[in-house]
Design brief:
Domain Helix-turn-helix: 48-96
Order of helices and strands: HHEHHEEH
Organism: Bacteroides muris
Keywords: DNA-binding
Number of strands: 3
InterPro entries: DNA-bd_dom_put_sf (IPR009061), HTH_17 (IPR041657)
CATH class of the largest domain: Mainly Alpha
Largest sheet: 3 strands, antiparallel
Pfam family, one: HTH_17
């Protein structure tokens, strides 16, 4: 039985563990939490655009995208160090412009 199983069982126990095992368990929890948070922000069915792609589609400069992000008009996400825009958000702006 591993530590996660023991914790999930809800049993009232006292554990004596090695510091290396505790560190390994902590790293496991952090990775699991990061993965969960990342998955909640990244929707697999959603398409994302780079700054360059978004600026080309919207016929704007990169500085305009930055300004729009700053005022909340077109928010960007930072995923894995990359700044991305949801394609659905870009499409919504195009819809507004066409109406």
């Amino acid at each position: 039985m591993n530590m996660e199983d023991i914790l999930n069982s809800g049993a009232n126990v006292t554990l004596t563990i090695k510091s290396t095992d505790l560190k390994e368990f902590a790293e496991h929890l952090v990775k699991k939490t990061v993965r969960s948070i990342r998955d909640s922000f990244i929707r697999p069915e959603e398409d994302y655009l780079t700054i360059k792609e978004a600026s080309q589609i919207l016929h704007t400069d990169k500085s305009t995208l930055w300004r729009w992000h700053k005022i909340g008009y077109l928010c960007r996400l930072e995923i894995g160090g990359k700044r991305l825009y949801r394609k659905s958000d870009v499409d919504a702006i195009l819809q507004k412009e066409n109406n």
